[in-house]
Amino acid sequence: MSVLHAILLGLVQGLTEFLPVSSSGHLALVPWLFGWDSFGGDDALENAFDVALHLGTLMGAVAYLRSDVARYGGAGMRWLRVRGPVGGDARVAWLLVVTAVPAGLLGLLVLAVTEDLGDRTWLVAVCLIVFGVLMYLADRRPGTRGLHDLRLRDALLLGTAQGLAFQPGVSRAGVTLSVGRGLGLEREAATRLVFLMSLPVVAGAGLVKAADLAVPAGWWPPFVWGTLAAAVSGWLAVHWMLLFVARVGLGGFAAYRVVAGVGVLALLASSYR
Q1: pTM tops 0.70, yes or no
Q2: Facing residues of 185 across strands?
Q3: Which residue from 226, 181, 169, 221 is spatially nearest to 52, judged by alpha carbons?
Q4: Interatomic CA distance for residues 239 and 174, integer angstroms
Q5: Alpha-carbon distance 158 to 103, whole Å?
Q6: What residue ranges do the domains of the chain occupy?
Q7: pLDDT one-digit tens code per residue, 70-128
Q8: Are 60 and 235 in contact (CB under 8 A)?
């Protein structure tokens, strides 16, 4: 793999991890579109690079959301020391923990019983279209609730939705944003919630896969540059999403998903790929 390819894939991963357009779908489609075979069929090496990009994206997101992480993490830890009724930031903190439980359990189940669906390009395209339409419909609902209005059943539903978004093309951010908007959350609150929910899930998935992580000699430059690109673009994606979604909504992302999905299906039907 060239350093240029690594940087481009890192940028794609960082941007699409937190945009509701499916990072795994784009990481499958970009090499397919350009005919790249960077790993020569070595699944372990490809998996290691994917882990590196996800950890880079996580670093960028944590750097941007550090004040939120400190705020809710500190409130949750203070409640552990004093106990009593759970309210305010401590309640939000523990509801975030609740969202991670079904997401983590479903993620482990998917790893154990399913095959890799990433090479089914037609399925990636269909998921981009279908879940783009669903996201558009959910975003049309009025939003009046904030993070402090979340209930336990809301947290469980959001965590389950996040855990089920394993198929490339679905988008973890997209499906949880759709559910959040469907539950009546304000756009900015739903977006910030999705980012905070994703941190433990991305970290947990990275740690599970990192057990088998091995970087062969000569591959360190692509790994390092790809990880740095994912970290920077992940930071930018979080910043831009929080500004953009609150003002404009998710319609543009929904339209992009549909256009991209239709474009991929058209290419599949042609002689290009």
Answers
A1: yes
A2: 145
A3: 226
A4: 16
A5: 9
A6: 3-269
A7: 999 998 888 888 877 777 889 999 999 999 888 888 877 766 665 554 457 888 889 99
A8: yes
